[in-house]
Structure formats: structure tokens, C-alpha cells
Design goal:
Helix content: over 70%
Pfam families: DUF2164
Order of helices and strands: HHH
Radius of gyration: 25 Å
InterPro entries: DUF2164
Distance between the termini: 60 Å
Shape: rod-shaped
Organism: Rhizobium leguminosarum
Strand content: under 5%
Structural class: mainly alpha
Protein name: DUF2164 domain-containing protein
Largest sheet: none
């Protein structure tokens, strides 16, 4: 699996959100510990979240394909049997 990476701007935004969460819910946290925490979550939990997203996308796609097959079936016309 390809490593999950964020742009510099994305990482700064995520670190900011982590720090805001800690300020609100726990004890204040610095930027460096917040980056380490982000790296930990991306490495350890990221694959689970990523795989869940893939499974959800696959289920949605399969549902659409089933719906499309049903729509095609509804468009079919009655075939007349030809006499020999």
C-alpha cells in the first residue's frame, strides 16, 4: 500500500486541529507532539480508515451496478417467438 502523505498545508491544518482538540478536551499540546501524534495515527490507524473507505466505495459501486442491471432489465422488450 502506498504511504499516506499530506501536503505541508494539510499537515499544518491537521496539527492545528489536534492542538485545538487537546486545548478543548485535554491538556494543551505543542506542535511537535501533535505532529508525532498525527504520524502515529496515520501509520497505525490510517490503513484501517483507508480500507474502510475502500470497502464503502466498493459497496456503493456494487449497489449502483445492481440498480443499473435492474434498469436495463426494465428496458428489455418482449421477444416474439418465431414459428419454424
Amino acid at each position: 500500500m502506498k504511504k499516506i502523505e499530506f501536503s505541508k498545508e494539510e499537515k499544518a491544518e491537521i496539527v492545528s486541529r489536534i492542538r485545538a482538540y487537546f486545548d478543548r478536551e485535554l491538556d494543551p499540546i505543542g506542535s511537535l507532539p501533535a505532529e508525532f501524534l498525527l504520524d502515529f495515527f496515520v501509520e497505525e490507524i490510517g490503513p484501517y480508515v483507508y480500507n474502510r473507505g475502500l470497502r464503502d466505495a466498493q459497496a456503493a459501486l456494487l449497489k449502483r451496478m445492481e440498480d443499473m442491471a435492474e434498469d436495463i432489465h426494465l428496458l428489455e422488450r418482449e421477444e416474439k417467438i418465431l414459428a419454424p
